[in-house]
Structure formats: C-alpha cells, structure tokens
Write a structure and sequence with these properties.
heterodimer, A: alpha+beta, SH3 type barrels, 5-stranded antiparallel β-sheet, B: Rossmann fold, 2 domains, 6-stranded mixed β-sheet, 9 strands
C-alpha cells in the first residue's frame, strides 16, 4: 500500500496485524480479494487515503503498511 | 412485548437525526463519524404505548474496537431479545458497507427493521436501490427515509411492529462479504455520472498540498467570521440594549437604594465616578449579566454558528487527516482535532468527545491538553474584550503562548506516558450542504446549553464573591498567596480573588480583573494563567468522570506546575 502510486487501483492480497485491527478492517470492508483505489499519501509517514467501494477511508501510515496489494 | 427501540448503525449515517424525528428530542448531529458519544433516550408513542427509544453511538461491527463501540455491544446484551426492536439506520449512498452490520444484527437474531436513510442523496449520485427486493433478500422490513426532511419517518414508525425475531445461521466475516456482494448485485443499480464539482472538491481536500491550502483558507475565513459576527452582535445589539435600555433602570434602582450599603453592594456594586460602569461595578445586576450576555454570549453565537457549519459540511475529518502527522508527535492521531475544536467552545464537550479515541493513554493526553492549551469561548471572548484594547499583538501573544505550551506538553506527555497510541482509521464523509433547520436547531441547543450551565454559576459566583469582599474575608487569602502572585507573577495581590474565581467561571474571573486596572503586561500574564492554571468546576467534574480520580490529580498537578512556571517566566521575560 505504501509503495503504490497515487490514483492507482489495487487488489488486497494480505492484511496483517492483531485480531482487533483485522476485525476493524474487516468491518469497514478491507479484506483480501477486495479492490481499492489509493487516493493520496501524506509525506513524512503521514496518513493514506483510499477508496473502498463508495467510502473514502483515511489510514495511519503504520496501518497502511499492514496491507499488501497486488497492482494490475 | 416491545419495551425498547435501539437506533444502531455505522457512524455518520444520521442516527441522531432519525432519533430527533422519532422522539422530538433534540440532539446534536453533524457530518463526521463519532458525533454521538453519549447515549440519549427519548420516547415514541405507538398505539397509545410509550416506548423508549435509545440513540446509540455509531459502530461498524458488533465486535467492539473502541470505548464507544463497546457501549453499543453491552447495551444490546443487557436486555432479552424479545423485549426490543433494533432500527438499523443505513446510509443509502453506501449500502454495501452498511450491510455488514445489518447482516450481523440479523444473524444475532434481533428483531431488526432497516431504515435506508439519506435517500435524497442517492439520486444525484446515480444510485438506485430496489427496496422491495432488498426486503425479500434480507427477510426484514426495509423503509426508505430522508430524516433531515422527515420523508419516510411515518412509514418507519408504522412498520416497527413488523420487525420479528429472526433465526439465521452465522456467517464468517469473509462469507458475509460474499453474501453482501450478491445482494448488492441484485438490488443496487449505478448510473455512471461525470465527476461533479463537489466530488472534485472532495478529492482535492484529501490530497496533501491542495488540502492544506483549502484548510488554511477555511480556518482563516472561519476565524474572521467569528470575530466579525461577534463584534457586530456586541456593538449593534448587546451594547445598545445594556447602555440605552438597561442602564437608566439600574441608575434609578441605585438611587432608590441610596447609592450605598450592603444591598447596593450586592446588586449594583461600586459606582465608578458616581455612575454604574458595567465593566467595573461588579454587581449581581450590573457586571454579572453584562459579562454573560454582552461580552460572552455574542461570541458563543458566532463561534457555534461557524463550527456547526464546518461540522455539517464534513470539513473536520479532512482537517483530521491533514493534522495527523502533527498529532502523532503528541501521542494522538489526527482525529483528536475534533475534541480540541469542541474544546474551544467549552472544555466539557471537548473532553467528553475524547471517548472516540481508542486508548486510555490518548484520552488522558487529549483531556489534559484541552484543559491547559485550549481556552473556551467565554474566556476567549473576555480576553478579546479586555486585552484587545491594547492591540491585537497581546491577544495573538496569548494564543501563541498557549499553542507553544500545548505542543511542548503534548510532546512531553507522549514521551512519559506508558503504553502506545494506536493510529487512526477514519472514514472521510462526502461534503454535504448543511440543512438550515439542523444548523438552527443545533445552534439553539448549544446556546441553551450555555445559558443553563453558565448563568446560575455566574450569578452565584458573583454573589458569593461580593459577600466575601464586603466582609473583607478575602484579605487573609490575598496575603497568603501574595508572595506567589506578587513575587512570581508580578500581579497585584487583589488578583488572587480573580484567580480563585477562575475555578467557578473563567469569564467572570477575567471580569474581576477589570476594576484592578492592570497594565497590558499584567493582564496578559493573568489571561494566560487563567487559561492554563486550573480547570473550572464543570471541567473538573467531567475530568473526574472520564479519567478517574488518579488521572484527575495527575492532570491537575500538571496544570498547577505549568501555571507556576509559565507565569514566572512570562513575568521575568516580558519587559514592558
């Protein structure tokens, strides 16, 4: 997720992190197999904005780094 | 037998608006996730029966991941399933994500009715939902509503009785999403639309550079409007009422009372050059109402009007994203900007809203920073009113000192507090055009809240102080604290009274400084001290409730020590 360029589409391959975080990701629609679009990335380990379905989500840098994507 | 109705749903889907429509009870609703942190109850009458309706904070799942979400899952477990109905409020423009919670509720076997809210918003976003088909697939009643205008609410109420206990197998999370995919395919049709201007703005505001320029612009304009509107209300409304209408009446009362004596001292206060001076007389009927209604209330109105507009547009979550980096240095994340901003109105709702933060550590840091570095509107209004005469330089100085303190203390607290602070995962809502009615009701609610909270305390405080002053009971306290106040802070020892009053109300405390005719430097130091040194009694109580006794003492000690150090440093370093 961190390495991906802005405005690109990607498919989630893996979500790591603790059970609580995984649950939260899951309930917001972030799970393996899901397609997302990366909207922006703030400098200096700042947050990342992504589009999942119809919602725009902002994730902290560390959280974003727990998500592995496959870029088409 | 239904005894209760729970309103549940994802954050920011309009539960509170639906709640207001159902019960007639006004609650604050805004366009950001996590507006509701307290549980509000109201009543709805169905077939001559009063049923309790409970507005729950938003949650994405029945498995809690924050203190707020915990409250929701606990509430649902507290009662037998056949005694309540769950109204699942769903954002129609985001059906897919909302169905996750809906399916969980159905799987749990609750009696559920779905309320597809914001149905007016779907049309121009090119979304069409087949409600009947959805009803068939979910096996629960589904009603389209637009709570903000009231469309569909009547039907929703009629159909509540159709909600029946369900029996359905539980899915794994992955299976549930697959199921949702299938449902969406059958009930939702999207027409492709070109990017609207609004969507372009939405996109631009989550990008670093364009977002920052937009935020700076919005903050600058907001500040200007608050100032302009506040001054306008003071000069054109409040002052004329007080000086032209109220003062002549009081002058008559003053001469009736013989221009002196105990009662005159209590009600009218001291005459300045033989006349009543609203800023210096300090009477129960003179300065007390003048401070609240002519100096503070105008700013309460202008501040909350602007804040409410920003809230309803959906600007705040975007600001949270921009500030995330800065807040990380303080052991918080960007969303903490919302408690901070609310704290500028009044520290109490600010500290309450720290409940949206996940860890106890974050809540401690955020609450402490609010009570030290975030001055409430009443205090700010008084600082404008008094210090403003010496030039904007001093007013800006107060903000600068407070901001520096906020930053330094945050960095220190982040270093010394145990534990770690989680990052944020925040939904950025679409921009919405504020509804005039919602803005108006929210403003009224907040003004009412201020009046109920402030007026009795102010009157009581002034009465008490006047009695103590008349019998010269403050003299011993003055002498006791004189070394600190005079020696360290360079203030006259009479300022002790004002600083003590700060524990009741910060605005009255600044007001007590008015008759002392302090120099600009002294006034500057006193203003900063009042902001940081000690929370007012209302803040004190809420700190105790939210943090517990131990952390309250910790926070208070930090405040007192910071106050002593900063007061001394300012006194030594400022020359004139």
């Amino acid at each position: 997720m961190i390495q991906m360029k802005e405005k690109r589409k990607g498919k989630i391959v893996e979500v790591s992190g603790g059970a609580r975080l995984q649950n939260k990701f899951m309930s917001m629609g972030i799970y393996p197999g899901r397609e997302i679009i990366k909207l922006s990335h703030f400098a200096l380990r700042g947050p990342v904005a992504i589009k999942v379905g119809r919602s725009v989500l902002a994730l902290g840098h560390g959280m974003a780094s727990k998500i592995t994507l496959e870029v088409e | 037998m239904i005894k209760k109705i729970f309103l549940i749903g994802n954050p920011n889907v309009g539960k509170s608006v639906v709640f207001s429509r159902l019960t007639g009870v006004q609650v604050i609703s805004s366009n950001y996730p996590g507006t509701t942190v307290e549980i509000t109850k109201g009543y709805l009458e169905i077939a001559q029966e009063r049923i309790e309706v409970v507005d729950l904070p938003g949650t994405y799942s029945l498995e809690p991941s924050s203190k707020v979400e915990e409250i929701v899952s606990l509430m649902l477990k507290e009662y037998p399933k056949d005694e309540f109905v769950v109204i699942d409020v769903i954002d129609s423009t985001n059906l897919e994500r909302n169905l996750f919670l809906a399916l969980q509720l159905i799987e749990e076997g609750f009696a559920v009715i779905a309320c597809l809210n914001m149905c007016d918003d779907t049309k121009h976003r090119g979304i069409d939902i087949d409600t009947e088909k959805l009803e068939g697939l979910l096996g629960i009643p589904v009603v389209s509503t637009c709570a903000i205008t009231g469309v569909g609410i009547k039907l929703l109420i009629e159909r509540i009785k159709e909600a029946k206990l369900t029996t359905k197998d539980s899915f794994t999370h992955e299976k549930r999403w697959l199921e949702i995919g299938k449902i969406i395919e059958q009930v939702q049709h999207l027409t492709h639309r070109h990017h609207t201007f609004r969507e372009m703005l939405e996109d631009a505001s989550v990008r670093p550079i364009s977002g920052m320029f937009m935020a700076l612009g919005v903050i600058f304009i907001s500040f200007k409007i608050v100032r302009f509107l506040g001054e306008l209300l003071i000069n054109k409304v409040a002052d004329p009422v007080f000086f032209d209408l109220y003062q002549p009446l009081l002058e008559k009362l003053s001469s009736t009372l013989g221009s002196g004596g105990f009662l005159h001292h209590l009600l009218v206060g001291e005459l300045i050059n033989g006349k009543i001076d609203f800023k210096q007389s300090m009477g129960l009927l003179t300065t007390a109402p003048y401070i609240e209604f002519a100096m503070v209330l105008p700013y309460i109105i202008s501040f909350y009007l602007v804040l409410s507009i920003l809230e309803d547009i959906g600007f705040l979550p975007r600001l949270a994203m921009l500030l995330d980096n800065l807040f990380h240095r303080l052991g918080l994340h960007g969303f903490a900007i919302i408690p901070m901003l609310l704290g500028f109105g009044c520290n109490v709702p600010g500290i309450l809203s720290t409940r949206v933060l996940e860890s106890k550590r974050e809540r401690f840091i955020a609450s402490t920073l609010i009570s030290i570095g975030v001055p409430c509107v009443p205090l700010q209004a008084m600082i404008f009113g008094l210090l403003g005469h010496y030039g904007g330089f001093y007013v800006a100085g107060v903000y600068l000192v407070l901001f520096a303190l906020w930053l330094i203390l945050g960095i220190i607290l982040n270093r010394v507090s145990k534990g770690y602070s989680p990052e944020f995962l925040l939904e950025i809502p679409p921009y919405r055009i504020p509804s005039f009615l919602n803005l108006f009701q929210k403003l009224m609610l907040r003004i009412k809240g201020f009046l109920i909270e402030a007026v009795p305390v102010v009157l009581l405080g002034v009465l008490l102080v006047n009695i103590l002053l008349f019998f010269k009971l403050f003299d011993s306290l003055n002498s006791l604290l004189a070394p600190i106040v005079q020696g360290l802070f360079g203030l006259p020892k009479e300022a002790v009274v004002a600083l003590t009053v700060g524990f009741f109300r910060k605005d009255v405390a600044v007001g007590m400084l008015m008759p002392l005719l302090l120099s600009a430097k002294q006034l500057f130091i006193a203003s900063v001290l009042l902001a940081i040194s000690f929370p007012c009694v209302a803040t004190f109580v809420v700190l105790f409730k939210e943090l517990g006794f131990k952390d309250l003492i910790k926070a208070t000690l930090i405040m007192v020590i910071t106050g002593l150090i900063v007061g001394t440093i300012l006194n030594l370093t400022i020359i004139h």
